[in-house]
Write a structure and sequence with these properties.
The protein is built from nine helices and four strands. The protein has about 190 residues and is an alpha+beta fold. Strands 2-3-1-4 form a four-stranded antiparallel sheet, with helices on both faces. Helix 3 runs parallel beside helix 6 and helix 6 packs across helix 9. The protein is globular and about 55 Å long. About 25% of the residues are buried.
Length: about 190
């Protein structure tokens, strides 16, 4: 039986879901971002308990097709931006269409209608979050980060970063370092 979970976007979320399944004595085949496949059929009582348990962690079981498709879109974006090792050779619209077997226009309209922002803005927000992570890890230069996240140039990355965060990447990095050293007042 396949279940779809809203807001399941990280490894910690997967651990929470596995933990809650174990508490209900349910066995899973796979727990991935946004999806859970369990071996047995789940009773209504177990389903209710699972829903309540997930809500405590900010996760939600989905049951309508539109919401499930929205979560699949989010999952594909998160996986591509946060977990892909190589930069994508195709553009996001083609990638999403191919991965989800839907016309991009349909996906984009549905996403905007339900989420309230367009797919492009959602992608940009996740790319900036990924840039922040990579800046904090301090393993890659800005040039390497811009390549990894498929920016046309370092300047484009810096402009988008400042537009979203209000800070330049270098200021963000310095601010984080100073804060970690206790040099910045809260």
């Amino acid at each position: 039986m396949k279940l779809y979970v809203k807001n399941m976007v990280c490894i910690r979320c997967k651990m929470v879901v596995k933990q809650q399944l174990k508490k209900l004595s349910l066995h899973y085949i796979v727990v991935e971002l946004g999806e859970v496949e369990i071996i047995e059929n789940i009773s209504n009582a177990q389903l209710g308990e699972f829903k309540v348990a997930l809500l405590k962690f900010g996760l939600e079981l989905l049951d309508d097709k539109k919401s499930i498709l929205i979560e699949k879109i989010k999952k594909v974006i998160v996986e591509l931006i946060h977990y892909a090792d190589e930069p994508s050779k195709v553009n996001f619209s083609d990638y999403l269409s191919e991965k989800l077997n839907h016309d991009y226009t349909y996906l984009a309209n549905l996403f905007s209608e339900v989420v309230g922002i367009n797919i492009e803005h959602y992608i940009i927000m996740h790319k900036i979050e990924r840039v922040k992570e990579l800046l904090v890890y301090d393993e890659l230069s800005l040039t390497e980060i811009s390549y990894k996240l498929h920016y046309s140039s370092v300047g484009h990355l810096c402009n988008q970063f400042k537009k979203i965060t209000g800070l330049t990447p270098s200021y963000f990095k310095k601010f984080r370092e100073n804060r970690q050293l206790g040099l910045v007042d809260p």
